[in-house]
Specification:
495 residues; 0% strand
Length: 495
Amino acid sequence: MTEKSALSFWQIWNMCFGFLGLQFGLALQNANVSRIFQTLGADVNDIPALWIAAPLTGLIVQPIVGHYSDRTWNRLGRRRPYFLAGAVFASLALLWMPNTPALWMAAGLLWILDASINVSMEPFRALVGDQLPARQGPAGFAMQSFFIGAGAVVASILPWVLAHFGVANVAPDGGIPDTVKYAFYVGGAVLFGSVLWTMSTTREYSPAQLRAFTDNVPEAPSVDVSQAGRHGFLLLLAGAAVLFAITHFVLEKEVYLLAGGLIVFGLLLTWLSRTRSRGMLREVMGDVYGMPMSMRRLAGVQLFSWFALFAMWIYTTAGVTQTIYATADTGSSAYNEGANWVGVLFAAYNGFGALAAVVIPLMVRRWGLRISHVINLCLGGAGLLSFLYIRDPRWLLASMVGVGFAWASILSLPYALLSDNLPTAKMGVYMGIFNFFIVIPQVLAASVLGLLLRLCFHNQPIWALGLGGGSLLIAGLCTLHVPEPESQAEIPKLA
């Protein structure tokens, strides 16, 4: 048995550099897609439904990519073929999206963009577990958080910067402004180039080498799935109850997504308890049902954390422009000024997140992984709740400090709590399954946020950010039930 070689700072840097481009693309998506949808004629109440393809795609794509990347080995490696395929299609989607003439085409391109980024991103997470010894794992995830913050800063602020250099910020025909178009063109180049850099500078261990390492976590015994049908039946009942509520109370059509998700997952669990299949679907569902206890306990933390983030991504543009800039007219200069300022705010939280990636290892040394995550989630909750009270857009930059710390923590500490307990041979599929708890809350947010705003908050989108703040505080409480690892991993500084 041998040990994985400890990597140098620059080797970890090169391994994680591709995240710079992936987050560049995601940040352009998060800061500008709602703006594109509204410009192409979408009503603010329809925006969550238009976004839903993205998280649904991740729910399907990530475990499948994880399953197959665990079993891939060719001249490109184990994870790198998926980096390359995802980068090609994501770059093409970024180049095309700001030129689309129709709302339905923009929604379709969002689906392609998010699916492609998911194809690349899940293997990037698994690569850290593959390549780094256990004591350096948190350093790898923290480095990814640093690049996520750095890439998103530039991407989010780019339309605002271009406008200050004289690029047109309002299209004369009511189309997509040149500031957004040029930002997406730059994003396509950065995404593809950064992923190529990681591919060309990072080697991968072969499956045989991974099995021989002393930190190899063996696969758990087969899980008894005979009781899965009982859980499936309960989910089917819940789905039927939601369908009844939709028809009886005439709820928003987006709630059908929630009902459909409950029914589909209930059917899959029922099938799991009875099938004799040994195919990919049976294996993935068996891994879902028998996921490690550490993953189960982190599920609630992730659910409430990502519900908050998705609420912020969907509704910040509408909330800030309507509440602070007092307009919903997408052709007005005030709206586009406010939308650009949202890009600045998104750049700010990602910039603070990049700084937080340097500070968080110091927090972990002092308080441990769990308490550090609680503190950061509470800072983020306070930041989002402050949107309800601030009316000077410049002061919202202060709100982004807390959001940035929460963002950096969400992208690193749960993975640090999890990765050392996953079977080495299934690192990819379990990282994909763990991302269910990123995708499911996004589907939930897209399903119910519009309903909650209508029933409780007079369709004022700023209150979605308040709900997000409360959700982060609940995530902090859930973190208190996650046990601290017995041995603290080494988390070196990133600079």
